[in-house]
Amino acid sequence: MEIKGIQSSLLTRRPLAVTVIRVDSPGLIWIHIKNSEKDYQEMREDLQVMMQRRGRYLGCYPDQVQVNQVIAIRDGSQWHRGYITAIEGDLARITLGDWGRKILRPLHECHRLPVRLHELAWQAIPCSLFRIGPMQPSEIWRFETRQMTKMLAEHKNGWIRIRKAEDDAAIVDLTIDNHPEDGRYDFKDILSKMGFVQQAPKTFKPDMYLGLTRRP
């Protein structure tokens, strides 16, 4: 049974409260919507309890595991929902759709996900900051820029305003809540003032692949 992502085209264009859960670059920022957190936490609690009680009966034989299959997988001490993107020998590449993370695990660690836990959409929404580009003439973000972006935004609360929706992703303006230190600030503006990004021209069309950016 397939799990769909949150359709960003159906979300409000007004400021939307979010938590930044993972940052790869200014062009790939994963967020959780605050309004959905209660449903997600309840689902996570159900997943932990169900896998503790029934996990031994839900294991997959290696020859049963298939690409695109939705599974339950343990990462550290916690169980997560995920889906398989590739199989390489006796290993599976898995995307944790609620967190935007990718992991590699042996096939025998994959478990069937209880059916009722398929109902909630994947909670991580990939976003890109609106109309920005790297300082250097490149389509790939520099390591220093990616590290600074992660340090300033990851695990912070804030608000997004969607500028363009693309399936289950979005191109956004992001405001970070840095209370009580410095209040709130426009994330694109602070990166620009620090010299890590530059404003793209008004003719820029935000039809980029998330994680990369075209030259402005």
TrEMBL record:
- Entries under InterPro entries matching the protein: SNase_OB-fold_sf, Tudor
Q: Name one GO cellular component term.
A: cytoplasm
Q: Which is a Pfam family this sequence falls into?
A: TUDOR
Residue ranges annotated for the Tudor domain, each copy included:
17-129
The protein here is known as Tudor domain-containing protein
Organism of provenance: Ooceraea biroi
